Amino acid sequence: MKKVLVTGSKGFIGRYLVDALQGTKYEIFALDVKDEKAGDSSVDISTADLDSIFLRIKPDVVIHLAAQVDVTESFVNPIRDLEINGIGTLKVLHASQTVGCNNFIYVASGGAIYDSDSPMPLTERSPERPVSPYGLSKRLGEDYVRVLSAKAGTSWTSLALSNCYGQVEDHQRGVIFQFWKALSEERVPTIYGPDVTRDFIHVSDVVAAILKAIENPINTRVNVSSQTEISLLDLFRKIATIIKSEIEPNILSSKSGDVLRSSLSNQKAKELLGWKPLINLESGLEISLPRAGNAK
Predict the structure, then answer these.
(1) Fold adopted by 3-166+199-227+264-278
(2) Which of 16, 83, 247, 252 has its CA 20 to 30 A from that of 142?
(3) How far is CA 153 from the centre of its chain?
(4) CA end-to-end distance (rounded Å), the chain
(5) Sequence-distant (≥ 6) Cβ neighbours of residue 228 within 8 angstroms
(6) 134 labelled catalytic
(7) Distance (Å) of CA 289 to CA 169, 212, 246
(8) Is the confidence at residue 183, as pLDDT, over 50?
(9) pLDDT of residue 296
(10) Tens-digit pLDDT profile for residues 9-26
(11) pLDDT grade for 248, boundaries at 50, 70 and 90
(12) Is the distance from CB of 265 to CB of 156 less than 8 angstroms?
């Protein structure tokens, strides 16, 4: 039975992925800084002795989701951001290769690494220009995976995600959650840059892409996206309509370090992984948003 180790197993994507892997032909192992369940490994990937953990498990596949994911926090503490996303990724990769793992799947944010002044939708060949420490550290992590996997002769895949969303009560971060939370509590939400655009991909489509990469590593980066660009103001209006709110937003300028436009081409993922998104934004929001009065 193939052994699959998921880092960041208690994160938003990690929880959905582990659930999807349960009952499959794989033997699943979970690793997360927040794990306390019996059988799970609770470690900080930037400081822990990962070699001993990997020697015990000897995974065939590693899906690396563990990361510092907050762009604002990456400006506040860029050293810690680098320790987790750069050094932490390198330690996970090194431990994987030490025990003979032959398939490493790296998951990152595509919107954070490309030059948003380039023509949309952005492809894997679009110029790269991270505008935050987070974007820099995630690109560095991928570079380690690419270079060291080639040196070791092992397989890898990098999945560059557009903005992942799902059940807001599970996720509890991101602009969709923030808009829903404010409107559900009858507060005025703030839009930082009404013309700022994003490309949203449902978490179930992300999990489907990871499952494809387990069986079919492709030794390159592919974007995992809906390939649909929407402004934050239009997104807000969709959410307000779904939960039947008439509250008008407070509109401010975009935040420092924010990517101003983002739409990722998913053609390469379709061709190489045999994957395509199945949930569009309208239906995704319908199943992700509890109605007003249900906020927790």
Answers:
(1) Rossmann fold (3.40.50)
(2) 16
(3) 26
(4) 40
(5) 199, 200, 263, 280, 281
(6) yes
(7) 8, 28, 16
(8) yes
(9) 42
(10) 999 999 999 999 998 999
(11) very high
(12) no
Select which of 134, 144, 165, 192 is catalytic.
134
**Six token digits for residue 114:** 């490309």
pLDDT band for position 111 (cuts 50, 70, 90): confident
C-alpha 186, offset from chain centre: 29
Phi/psi for 175 (5° steps) reads: -70, -35
**Domain coordinates of the chain in residue numbers?**
3-166+199-227+264-278
Which residues make Cβ contacts (< 8 Å) with residue 109, sequence separation at least 6?
A: 69, 134, 135, 138, 160, 161
* pLDDT tens-digit map of 22-61: 989 999 999 998 755 534 567 899 988 899 999 999 999 9
Distance CA 181, CA 23 (A): 34
Stated pTM of the model: 0.94
Token code pair at residue 105: 């799947």
H helix or E strand, kind and range, residue 176: helix 175-184
Q: What is the pLDDT of residue 146?
A: 98
CB 284 within 8 A of CB 200: yes
Residue 84's CB: how many other CB atoms inside 10 A?
A: 21
- Pairwise CA distance, residues 108 & 89, whole Å: 11
| Residue percentage of the chain with pLDDT more than 70 | 96
Give Cα separations from 4 to 26, 27, 62, 116 (angstroms).
Answer: 6, 6, 6, 35
| C-beta of residue 54 within 8 angstroms of C-beta of residue 43 | no
